[in-house]
Amino acid sequence: MTKPLDGIKIIDFTHVQAGPACTQLLAWFGADVIKVERPGSGDVTRNQLRDIPDADALYFTMLNSNKKSLTLDTKKPEGKEVLEKLIRESDVLVENFGPGALDRMGFSWERLNELNPKMIVASVKGFSDGHHYDDLKVYENVAQCAGGAASTTGFWDGPPTISAAALGDSNTGMHLAIGILTALLGREKTGKGQKVAVSMQDSVLNLCRVKLRDQQRLERVGYLEEYPQYPHGEFGDVVPRGGNAGGGGQPGWVLKCKGWETDSNAYIYFTIQGHAWEPICKALGKPEWIDDPAYKTAEARQPHIFEIFKTIEGWLADKTKFEAVDILRKFDIPCAPVLTMKELANDPSLRASGTIVEVPHSKRGSYLTVGSPIKFSDMKPEVTASPLLGEHTDEVLASLGYSKQDIFNLREVKAV
Ligand code: COA
Q1: What is the SS3 string spanning the chain?
Q2: Which of 58, 28, 369, 22 is nearest to 203 (CA)?
Q3: 84 vs 59, 105, 115, 120, CA distance in Å?
Q4: Would the pLDDT of 299 be above 90?
Q5: Binding site feature residues for CoA
Q6: What GO molecular functions are on record for this protein (predicted)?
Q7: Which residues are marked as active site?
C-alpha cells in the first residue's frame, strides 16, 4: 500500500524522546527515516533502563520503529562528507541536540540551506531562540516546570507536580511533526525549504493554555469557581493547583469505587455536566435532587460539590469501576474507569484498533508499543521493529554511491 509520505527522505539526527517521537510518526506515514547515530554507542536510550542484557531498551524500541539506522561520526571529515551527500538528497533534517551542537559540527542553518535549499531543517530545543534561557539543555520534567504544567498540577497543599504524560518530550515532537508537514506543503508552493523550530517550553505552555485563561479570570474576578478552593478557601494572585477538578466548566472528580481500600486504581472520573444533571440524579437514585434549589444549578451545587461527590461515592461503594461506568454510560454521563497500564496493555479494543501493538524484534522477541493514535480511512500505519545500531549503514551508503571498498575505508577510520 502506498503511504502519503512515501518518497520523503528524512535525516533523523534525533535522540532521547522529543525528536524520535516526531520522526517515528513520520515514518509510520511512509517517510524514509534514516537515523544517524554515533558509531559504537548510538542513541543513549538504547542502553537506558535495559530489561534484557545486550538488547536495545524498550525506551529506544518504542520511539524508533519503522526507521533505518546509519552509524556515522559526523565530527570526522569522512563522516561529514557522507552527511553532506545525504543532505543533498534529503527533504528534511530533524535534530534535537543541545543548543549550538549542530553549528559546532559545521552544519549551521546557513550551511544546510546552501547544501540543499529545498531541505526543511527542523529542531527541538528546550527554549525558543532568543529566549533568556536559550542556552539551557532541557529534559521532560524541566520543560514541564518551565511551561506552566508543574505549577498547576497536583494538590493545593502539595508541591508543584510533574505529569506522567510526556508533555515536554513527545508533545513537542508532535508539534514539530505538524511544523514539518506544514513546511513540506509550503515547499510545494515556493520550492524552498525553511527552518522549523519548536521549543519544549512553548509546547507545554500550548497545552496549558486553559491555565493562562484562568490566570486572567483570576486577575479580573479574584476567584475561580470550578476550583476546589472555591468558595471556602483563599485565592492568591496566581492560578492554584486544582487537584482533580475538571478544567472546563464541568465540575468533576476522581471517585472511589468498590475495592479502593486495596486497589489503588479502583476509581472512576465522574463529570457533572450541567445539562446532564437530571440523568445524573436518575442514575444515582436521587430524583429529589432534580428540582431542589440547593442542587438544581451549577452555582447552587458548587458550595457543596464535595458533599455531592461523597454521596456519589456512597452509590459507587458496591460497584467496581467497570460496573459503575456500564451503568452511567446508559445515562449519557461523561465518565471513565481509571485504567492502569496493565489494563491498557491488555485492552482488546486498543489491540483491535492498532493503538496497542505487538512488534516482533530480532533481539528482544516481541515487545508492546503504542501504534499510531491517528487513524485514516485509506491507510493503516504498520509498526515495524526499531533498527539495530548501524543495521542499515551499508544499505544507505550504497544508495549514496559508496562502493564496498569505500565502505571498508570508512570503517577503517571509524567514521561509520
Ligand atoms: N557523531 C559525532 N558526534 C555526535 C553525533 C554523531 N553521530 N551525534 C551527536 N554528536 C555530538 C554532538 O555534536 C554534540 O557534541 P558537542 O556538544 O561537542 O558539540 C554531542 O554529541 C551531543 O550533545 P547534546 O545533544 O548536547 O547531548 P547531551 O547528552 O549533553 O544533552 C539533551 C542531551 C537532551 C539534554 C540535549 O540534547 C538537549 O537539550 N536537547 C534539546 C532539547 C531536547 O530535545 N531535550 C530532550 C527531550 S527528550
Answers
A1: CCCCCCCCEEEEECCCCHHHHHHHHHHHCCCEEEEEECCCCCCHHHCCCCCCCCCCCHHHHCCCCCCEEEECCCCCHHHHHHHHHHHHHCCEEEECCCCCHHHHCCCCHHHHHHHCCCCEEEEEECCCCCCCCCCCCCCHHHHHHHCCHHHHCCCCCCCCCCCCCCCCCHHHHHHHHHHHHHHHHHHHHHCCCCEEEEEHHHHHHHHCHHHHHHHHHHHHHCCCCCCCCCCCCCCCCCCCCCCCCCCCCCCEEEEECCCCCCCCCCEEEEECCHHHHHHHHHHHCCHHHCCCCCCCCHHHHHHHHHHHHHHHHHHHCCCCHHHHHHHHHHHCCCEEECCCHHHHHCCHHHHHHCCEEEEEECCCEEEEEECCCCCCCCCCCCCCCCCCCCCCHHHHHHHCCCCHHHHHHHHHCCCC
A2: 22
A3: 30, 12, 7, 15
A4: no
A5: 15-18, 38, 72-75, 96-98, 104, 137-140
A6: formyl-CoA transferase activity
A7: 169
- pLDDT band with cut points at 50, 70 and 90 for residue 248: confident
Beta pairing class for 356-361 and 252-256: unpaired
Q: Write down the domain spans for the chain.
A: 9-206+346-413, 252-333
Answer whether CATH 3.40.640.10 is correct for domain 252-333.
no
Q: What is the pLDDT of residue 43?
A: 98
Average pLDDT, the chain: 97
Of ligand 1's atoms, which has the minimum distance to the CA of residue 101? Answer: 19
> What does the pLDDT average to over 330-356?
97
Same topology for domains 9-206+346-413 and 252-333, yes or no? no
Report the distance separating Cα 416 and Cα 399, nearest Å: 15
Architecture of domain 9-206+346-413: 3-Layer(aba) Sandwich (3.40)
Which residue has the least CA distance to atom 10 on ligand 1?
38
Ligand 1: which of 129, 137, 170, 414 to mutate, most ligand atoms within 8 Å of CB?
Answer: 137
Give me the amino acid identity at 268: I
Contact criterion met (CB below 8 Å) for 217 and 62: no
